[in-house]
């Protein structure tokens, strides 16, 4: 029997600086999972490729310019939500133009992958830390 659950595609970036630190942002009050730390990114719009969505989201959330060619897929998460199914694609990126700005979050933090384990993260983001520790 086919599953009628709609897929909810979301993309996220592990922006990695020259020191090997990863950028995470804290979700603002009033949003679902407020206060948790997450990798920047967002929803893939209809007709948009995951890479195009991530380039757009990084510009909207952080005022960064990223080339799709500088994104490389790392891993993904799959999680049932109420009425839909989240598929979260994580990309790594080591090159961008600009300095991350607080446009859609209450705080930004650069942290070594192991330090991310100390931060409260959404259930779909937290498993990515082990993968990032191996990069």
UniProtKB/TrEMBL annotation:
Enzyme Commission number, as recorded: 3.6.1.55
Gene3D superfamilies per UniProt: Nucleoside Triphosphate Pyrophosphohydrolase
An example Gene Ontology molecular-function term: hydrolase activity
UniProt keyword list: DNA damage, DNA repair, DNA replication, Hydrolase, Magnesium, Metal-binding, Mutator protein
Cofactors: Mg(2+)
InterPro entries, per database record: MutT-like, Nudix_hydrolase, NUDIX_hydrolase-like_dom_sf, NUDIX_hydrolase_dom
One Pfam family named in its UniProt record: NUDIX
Stretches of the chain forming a coiled coil according to its record: none
UniProt entry tagged with the keyword Magnesium: yes
Highest taxon, organism lineage: Bacteria
Family: Belongs to the Nudix hydrolase family.
Name assigned to this protein: 8-oxo-dGTP diphosphatase
Species of origin: Sphingomonas hylomeconis
């Amino acid at each position: 029997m086919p599953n009628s659950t709609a897929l909810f595609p979301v993309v996220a970036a592990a922006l990695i600086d020259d020191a090997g630190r990863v950028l995470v942002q804290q979700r603002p009050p009033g949003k679902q999972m407020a206060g948790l730390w997450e990798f920047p990114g967002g929803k893939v719009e209809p007709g948009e490729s995951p890479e195009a969505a991530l380039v757009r989201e990084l510009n909207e959330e952080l005022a960064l310019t990223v080339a799709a060619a500088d994104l490389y897929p790392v891993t993904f998460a799959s999680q049932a939500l109420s009425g839909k199914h989240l598929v979260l694609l994580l990309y790594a990126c080591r090159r961008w133009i600009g300095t991350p700005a607080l446009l859609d979050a209450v705080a930004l933090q650069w942290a070594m992958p192991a330090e991310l384990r100390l931060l409260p993260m959404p259930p779909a983001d937290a498993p990515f830390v082990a993968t990032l520790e191996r990069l």
